[in-house]
Amino acid sequence: MDEYIGIIKLFAGSFAPKNWAFCNGQLLPIAQNQALFSILGTMYGGNGTTTFALPNLNGRVAVGTGQLAGGSNYDQGQVGGMESVTLTSAQMPAHTHQLVANTGPGNTTAPAGALLSVPAAAVASSGDEVTVTAYASAATTLAPMNPSSLTPTGESLPHENRPPYLALPYIICLYGAFPPRD
């Protein structure tokens, strides 16, 4: 049984079988591939006079056209996606960071580790936190806090954005049965 012209399949071989070609975006002459051109047109490239292009699925995953309820719309021939992304603070979920502090008594202007501390009386005997108003007079010599107490962390580097994969070539049927319309 002949396959329909224009059908695309995954193939486990390292060659394209007879009457098939790899979906790698290559240009084909219209004169030798009129049936396939009548199906694809110039949707994937070519000048439409002498050449047209096959879809380029190298390094891509095919997704169905249309729109899921509440999802994005995908038009035929549309390309998109990224192999890696760098998140920005606007893309992160809302969250808070706890202040890094020492619950031991703060009795020096140069505390070990340069961490914020509270007066000993501010920690209840049960170990529960007690709200303390922290301030210093203008005459106080200030000590710098440990950078990990307040500064952002991370390197803003891109991260991998792909699920586990197995690379296989997509092939397209060049010659076979012309697909009938309803």
From TrEMBL:
Residues 6-61 form the Phage tail collar domain. It comes from the Bacteria. InterPro entries: Phage_tail_collar_dom, Phage_tail_collar_dom_sf. Pfam families: Collar. Gene3D superfamilies: Phage tail collar domain. This is Phage tail protein.
